[in-house]
């Protein structure tokens, strides 16, 4: 019996292209629905608030919708009336505009830039309009140019009325449709939610419910906060323009509120018209400068004070995503799409966050880092860019100590490199580049290390280990000399340099040695004079067999030397004691905090155990020869 074939899913790219095509060609249907959905998200918290006070659902819904659209209607009426007043007053400003143009033309020499540009344009126009020379004489006398005759037919009153009403039918019908849809969505919000869950997420109620709540929360908060920010921006703009004496200040304040919904370019558009009117109203240039200063000051206050305080990271969009979304939705739905671009993109990011098939949307448009800090640092080290790695480290060190950064980020980044080396994915050149970049990173952080060392408390009181468990306070390293050694390769050398810097911050005198310095031929040349403790670090657990020989060599070179081994992996304290016993080391550790504590402990050195030797049993032939 043939098994039924599984239904193949439409490829993501083809599905996305199909959705975009549907949204474009059916924009007359989807645009009012999108507006209605966003307004539902914005008004739903107000309806819920009224419901908590015992207001019936129908009353609260109709009251919210009528209030919202009443505000929009009053707003539109004021804007239209103000625009009509500006249109009537424009001819009165003509003389000031002409005077300013003459002043610009007369500024400087007689051949100013405006005169030269005007002359060039005039000559080009004359050349274009110049008729071609006819070499042959005209066969017939030229006829006079025909006269343009226009037939004027007076319109009937009913036709005039229709011409006025027809352009308004489309916007009014759309507004009415949006109002009706918003009312029904608010009335049947729970039922629509249940139907949506049954349609797309019945198999995972938890994830679908969380996605709906997240989308409603993000979009609602964004719209509310954006409205608060825009009002806090437009009202002072209107009042300031009124105090400066610019006509129709109410209009410019209201337009500033609306245009600021448009990302980035909205405030610039809102500033152009008042500045042009300032040029037309006053004979001088001081009013223009004051108006420009008002807009710039408000932008600085809103962008640097109010928006970070109100927004935080509530939208979840990166700045580049906002720009790309504005371009896309403007192409798709025109100016209305430009205004709706940010909340619509927020919905897409929420969809990508909770639906695995659309995870690429969150990666493309979200503001959350797509790589872990350790992966990001490793990528920079692998690319041979220690400067950007330093910038990344400095950002984290604004809130963390070096011991935390090295233990939680830098050492795990080196572990990623060691893992790639062990599986053959990292070439020798790349391994050398990663190690060299890590050493440069450590050198670049010397200034921060010095600042930590100069603090009143040399060690942080609450150090956390790599596994998130609290660690003991780091001891003072004053008067102690420590030698940090890379165990087996260049990456181990870089880890040793990081440990050395942490020990230096604690006040110890620290030297470093690479893995080649502990070879049998060169171990006698190590600077062990005055050294209290030597710490050997390994990124690979397979190197511990080699670590046992290194411990014996160092203890033979200096019997009073404390020798510790650090295996930069996860491990418990009991495992560290067992590892130290197996390697005949004075201590063992698995993280930066443990290595620092072990290196700066005042415990005496563990005596070197005698190596167990295997006794070879004589062969049978040997026994016979010895008997003979």
UniProtKB/TrEMBL annotation:
<keyword id="KW-1133">Transmembrane helix</keyword>
<feature type="transmembrane region" description="Helical">
    <location>
        <begin position="9"/>
        <end position="26"/>
    </location>
</feature>
<keyword id="KW-0812">Transmembrane</keyword>
<comment type="similarity">
    <text>Belongs to the autoinducer-2 exporter (AI-2E) (TC 2.A.86) family.</text>
</comment>
<keyword id="KW-0813">Transport</keyword>
<feature type="region of interest" description="Disordered">
    <location>
        <begin position="450"/>
        <end position="477"/>
    </location>
</feature>
<feature type="transmembrane region" description="Helical">
    <location>
        <begin position="250"/>
        <end position="280"/>
    </location>
</feature>
<keyword id="KW-0472">Membrane</keyword>
<feature type="transmembrane region" description="Helical">
    <location>
        <begin position="222"/>
        <end position="244"/>
    </location>
</feature>
<feature type="compositionally biased region" description="Acidic residues">
    <location>
        <begin position="450"/>
        <end position="475"/>
    </location>
</feature>
<feature type="transmembrane region" description="Helical">
    <location>
        <begin position="58"/>
        <end position="80"/>
    </location>
</feature>
<dbReference type="InterPro" id="IPR002549">
    <property type="entry name" value="AI-2E-like"/>
</dbReference>
<feature type="transmembrane region" description="Helical">
    <location>
        <begin position="32"/>
        <end position="51"/>
    </location>
</feature>
<keyword id="KW-1003">Cell membrane</keyword>
<feature type="transmembrane region" description="Helical">
    <location>
        <begin position="164"/>
        <end position="187"/>
    </location>
</feature>
<protein>
    <submittedName>
        <fullName>PurR-regulated permease PerM</fullName>
    </submittedName>
</protein>
<dbReference type="Pfam" id="PF01594">
    <property type="entry name" value="AI-2E_transport"/>
</dbReference>
<feature type="transmembrane region" description="Helical">
    <location>
        <begin position="318"/>
        <end position="351"/>
    </location>
</feature>
<feature type="transmembrane region" description="Helical">
    <location>
        <begin position="287"/>
        <end position="306"/>
    </location>
</feature>
């Amino acid at each position: 019996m043939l098994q039924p074939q599984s239904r193949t899913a439409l490829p993501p790219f083809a599905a996305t292209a199909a959705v975009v095509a549907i949204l474009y060609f059916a924009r007359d249907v989807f645009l009012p629905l999108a507006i209605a959905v966003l307004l539902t998200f914005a008004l739903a918290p107000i309806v819920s608030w009224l419901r908590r006070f015992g207001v019936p659902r129908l009353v609260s819904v109709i009251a919210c919708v009528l209030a919202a659209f009443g505000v929009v209607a009053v707003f539109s009426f004021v804007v239209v009336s103000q625009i009509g007043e500006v249109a009537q007053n424009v001819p009165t400003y003509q003389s000031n505009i002409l005077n300013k143009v003459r002043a610009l033309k007369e500024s400087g020499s007689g051949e100013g830039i405006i005169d030269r540009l005007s002359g060039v344009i005039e000559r080009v126009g004359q050349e274009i309009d110049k008729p071609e020379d006819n070499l042959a004489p005209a066969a017939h006398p030229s006829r006079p140019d025909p006269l343009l005759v226009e037939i004027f037919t007076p319109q009937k009153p009913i036709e005039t009325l229709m011409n006025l009403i027809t352009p308004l039918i489309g916007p009014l019908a759309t507004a009415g449709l949006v109002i009706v849809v918003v009312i029904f969505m608010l009335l049947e919000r729970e039922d629509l939610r249940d139907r949506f869950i049954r349609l797309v997420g019945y198999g995972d109620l938890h994830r679908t419910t969380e996605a709906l709540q997240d989308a409603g929360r993000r979009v609602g908060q964004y719209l509310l906060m954006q409205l608060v920010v825009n009002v806090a921006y437009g009202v002072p703009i209107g009042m300031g323009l009124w105090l400066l004496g610019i006509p129709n200040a109410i209009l410019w304040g209201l337009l500033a509120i609306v245009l600021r919904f448009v990302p980035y370019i909205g405030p610039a558009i809102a500033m152009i018209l008042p500045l042009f009117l300032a040029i037309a109203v006053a004979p001088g240039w001081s009013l223009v400068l004051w108006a420009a200063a008002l807009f710039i000051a408000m932008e600085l206050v809103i962008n640097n004070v109010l928006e970070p305080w109100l927004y935080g990271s509530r939208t979840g969009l990166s700045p580049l995503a906002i720009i790309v979304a504005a371009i896309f939705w403007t192409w798709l739905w025109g100016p209305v799409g430009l205004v709706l671009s940010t909340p619509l993109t927020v919905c897409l990011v929420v969809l990508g966050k909770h639906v695995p098939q659309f995870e690429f949307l969150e990666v493309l448009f979200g503001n959350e880092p797509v790589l872990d800090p350790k992966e990001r640092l490793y990528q920079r080290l692998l690319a041979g860019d220690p400067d950007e790695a330093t910038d990344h480290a400095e950002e984290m060190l604004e809130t963390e100590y070096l011991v935390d950064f090295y233990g939680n980020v830098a050492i795990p980044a080196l572990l990623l490199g060691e893992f790639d080396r062990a599986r053959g994915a990292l070439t020798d050149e790349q391994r050398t580049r990663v190690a060299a970049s890590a050493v440069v990173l450590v050198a670049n952080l010397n200034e921060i290390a010095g600042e930590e060392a100069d603090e009143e408390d040399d060690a942080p009181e609450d150090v956390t280990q790599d596994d998130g468990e609290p660690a003991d306070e780091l001891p003072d390293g004053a008067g102690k000399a420590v030698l940090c050694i890379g165990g087996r390769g260049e990456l181990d050398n870089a880890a040793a340099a990081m440990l050395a810097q942490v020990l230096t911050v604690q006040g110890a005198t620290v030297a470093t040695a690479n893995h080649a310095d502990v070879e049998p031929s060169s171990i006698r040349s190590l600077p062990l004079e005055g050294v209290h403790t030597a710490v050997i670090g390994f990124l690979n657990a397979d190197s511990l067999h080699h670590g046992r020989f290194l411990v014996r060599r160092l203890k033979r070179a200096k019997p009073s030397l404390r020798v510790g081994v650090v295996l930069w992996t996860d491990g418990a304290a009991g495992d560290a004691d067992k590892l130290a016993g197996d390697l005949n080391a004075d201590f063992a550790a698995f993280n930066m905090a443990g290595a620092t504590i072990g290196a700066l402990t005042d415990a005496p050195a563990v005596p070197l155990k005698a190596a167990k030797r295997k006794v070879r049993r004589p062969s049978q032939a040997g026994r016979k020869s010895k008997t003979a």
